[in-house]
Amino acid sequence: MPFFARNRPHPILVANRMVRGSYISLQSALAHYGLIPEGTPVVTSVTTTRPGAWKTPLGDFDFRRIKVELFFGYQLVDVAPGQGAFIATPKKALLDLIYLQPGGDDIDTNPHPRRPVIRMPGGWR
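Now predict its structure.
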């Protein structure tokens, strides 16, 4: 009997499989890490492809688009026995949340224009 015939797939894993090249982020990732007190009714992911939203028998899923250069800061995490999925690190989930807010891609909080406030090197975690 196939694995998923005996084990219901975790909604986070389902989201990862729905859109290749996506990872769980924003409030969904923060809730997964226990950093916000409430659960989230929609599993939110980010992708560099087309955004979209789906309601399915396995859950509600939202995919938000980010720039290719911001597609980093995620890791493979066990979400249930035998089920691993890509989830943003806590810092990256917060960065994605700020970036995807209206005007979030145009924040100018740097008092020193020659020194960046947030650095995003390729190995940032």
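The two ends are 38 Å apart (CA to CA).
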